[in-house]
Amino acid sequence: MTGNITPLIGIDLGTSNSALAWFHDGESQLIAGAEGERLTPSVVGLDDDGHILVGAAAKARLVSHPHLTVASFKRYMGTDKTWTLGTRRFRAEELSALVLRKLKADAEVAFGHEVTRAVITVPAYFNDVQRKAVKAAGQLAGLQVERLLNEPTAAALAYGLADNREQKFLIFDLGGGTFDVSIVDMFEGVIEVRASSGDAWLGGDDFTHALRQWMLSIHPVLSDSPPEQQARLTQLAEALKHQLSQQDVARAQMMHQGEELHWELNEETFGELAAGLLSRLKKPVVQALQDAQFDVGLLDHVILVGGATRMPIVRQLATRMFSRFPRNELNPDEVVALGAGVQAGLIADDHALEDIVLTDVMPYSLGVEVARRDGNRIDEGYFLPLIERNAFVPVSVVRTVSTLQDNQRQLDISVFQGEARRVSDNLLLDSIKIDIPPRKAGEVNLDVRFTYTLDGILEVECKIQGENTASTLIIEKAPGSLSEEEIAVRLSQLNELKQHPRDVPANRLLLAQASARYEQTLGERRQLIDHYVSQFERALESQDLRQIAAARDGLSQLLNQFDDGM
Ligand code: ADP
Ligand code: MG
Known about the structure:
Blueprint: E1 9-12, E2 17-24, E3 27-30, E4 40-41, E5 43-46, E6 52-54, H1 56-59, H2 61-64, E7 69-71, E8 82-85, E9 88-91, H3 92-111, E10 117-122, H4 128-140, E11 144-150, H5 151-160, E12 167-174, E13 179-187, E14 190-199, H6 204-218, H7 227-243, E15 249-256, E16 259-266, H8 267-273, H9 275-280, H10 282-292, E17 301-305, H11 312-322, H12 335-347, E18 357-358, E19 360-361, E20 366-374, E21 377-387, E22 392-393, E23 395-402, E24 410-417, E25 427-435, E26 445-452, E27 458-464, E28 470-474, H13 484-495, H14 505-520, H15 523-542, H16 545-563
Parallel strand pairs: 1-10, 10-11, 12-17, 14-18
Antiparallel strand pairs: 1-2, 2-3, 2-4, 5-6, 5-7, 8-9, 12-13, 13-14, 15-16, 19-22, 20-21, 20-24, 23-26, 24-25, 26-27, 27-28
Bound molecules: adenosine-5'-diphosphate and magnesium ion.
């Protein structure tokens, strides 16, 4: 896989697993990591020497070293929560950046050159703060984030290419920790997301948890066992769940104080254990259909996305709920990354994709706080939505608000996100004070314009009617998000993290380039490359920085000489 132009990559940054794709030879293709793995667990940890571990290597230590390993941090994107690993504290953006860096390095090894631009997917439910956090994570990983793409939209893109007829889809995405339902309309190559709904706290991990509780109820002696054994139990619960996707009966065993404990579970019992979770899958589906003003009968396809839809009990439920067999030709845990790859191709303007246009919808409502007059009383704290949930984006909307009091000097425009009637139940994004000329109540009118872009960035413009100047608010410092300065500081801190030299992206890239060269050459040159590569590999294993630098210089000079046609 080599090419001269640097392609964009598409990334599914998942709660449990992340994946990477690019658009090549007219289709979106997954890019595997160094060990051939197609999914990278979104897990970060430290090894015994204090080196950062990312992906499968970190996940493997979740059980043995729970205090040195962090998982499921995507749930906390855009919050101030931190995790301590060794001597350092990390925010969710930084942990995500480490996963993104690994994917970036995997792509660089596959392509043989640097990659700097990416499309990253986000759950449709992510709010403004969370979206900005994903962009910050990209920046921290050295990636220019060209577009944030809703995950269900990505799934529609991955499937949409297969067929260009007019059709309506429902995307049923059950991942490790989130459930998203979206209704997508496709016609003449246009893809529209008509509605999104979901449950941000429901996923395959909850099924694992239900199984774990059941395992404890069978062998209560395990309740007081040490943390390592508790973690092992979770792992066994996960294994039971996976087995049941392949066979009717699943088994597990574990040693406890010299005694062997056994479990045996069939699909029927699993269905009973998970009944509560399964029933929670219905409400978001009904909500999305209602928002889109669609009837189930109008749907042409139901598409299963997310690793947890591999569970037969989930598939059966979907089949019953929609009175049809859902589609699952693509691996459910790879669909979103494949769609991100399509979007990357669109941005790179691959001609195979000329006919596809993408529109999207707002995942939540945005508006301002207003007061209402009730006789002599002024009642404050009401939400006036300007852009409503499921409006098509990009979108620009203007509404006029007026003064309620005589000789008012200032208008406070507070921007909120949410669905509640009272602003106190919504999320405050930012506010701006506008000086106004003192007049009688109702005589000063202010036009408030909300402009929302495909990236999920909101611009608020306020203009007093009859005047020429406008005040603009770009919501930069939302609660829980990082400023540019903070990003710069954290970037340098991340760069100082100890990484095993063999994992350092520049070293991995050089080795990949050298192997590609080795394959292309013959005879003496081949031996020369082999010699320098071996030397470099030995240096990397020694972890001696001076030795590594010398061997790296030697190898790259050799490759440069060959490039110059020597
Ligand atoms: P996310 O989008 O949250 O990163 P994925 O789409 O990768 O997650 O799905 C992860 C979930 O899928 C996990 O809960 C995992 O246990 C579950 N899963 C993956 N493969 C299977 C399987 N064969 N059977 C049942 N569950 C599975
Ligand atoms: Mg996912």
